[in-house]
Amino acid sequence: RFAPSGFPMPRPMPRPAMAPCRIAVVGAGPLVGVHHCQAIAALHEDGAELAGVCQRRADDGAVAERFGVPLYTDVEEMARMEDLQGIVVAAPTHLHLPVVEKILSGARARQQELGEATLGLKALLVEKPICES
């Protein structure tokens, strides 16, 4: 087979075995957050792993239980304790900024505690709108 350029088509390279991309969800409510959990869990074969859920109340752990992941009530603690590469923020809009600030604080604390040169957390997805104003 040849590419449109006339050169032979490259062979697909086998995907190297690598650690899963661990992602947590903050605000796993029925309107938005639980759908992020479902989407992440569905990507397990592609290397994604739902690593945790953070809710405001400890008695609101149905989603964490359903997916078999840890439930946190403190987002800063979750970012410090879990080896996360990504976090989805699906909390109410007025909480987006304080939640992101706490996530970054926890991720930096983890970096310092482990003596790592770079931040392990690579991506934050903040549901729109990002803020109220």
Mean pLDDT: 89
Helix content: 25-40%
User: What does the overall shape look like?
Assistant: globular
Please list the strands of the largest sheet in the order they lie side by side.
3-2-1-4-5
Largest sheet composition: 5 strands, parallel
Order of helices and strands: EHEHEHEHE
* Structure summary, number of beta strands: 5
Structural class per helix/strand content?
A: alpha/beta
Q: What is the CA–CA distance across the termini?
A: 54 Å
Instruction: Give the DSSP E fraction (strand runs of 2 or more residues).
Output: 15-25%
Radius of gyration (Å): 18 Å
The count of helical stretches stands at 4
Would you mind describing this structure in some detail?
This protein is 32% helix and 17% strand. The termini are far apart. The chain is built from 4 helices and 5 strands, in the order βαβαβαβαβ. Helix 3 (75-81) packs parallel to helix 4 (96-114). A 5-stranded parallel sheet has the order 3-2-1-4-5, with helices on both faces. The mean pLDDT is 89. The chain is of the alpha/beta class and 133 residues long.
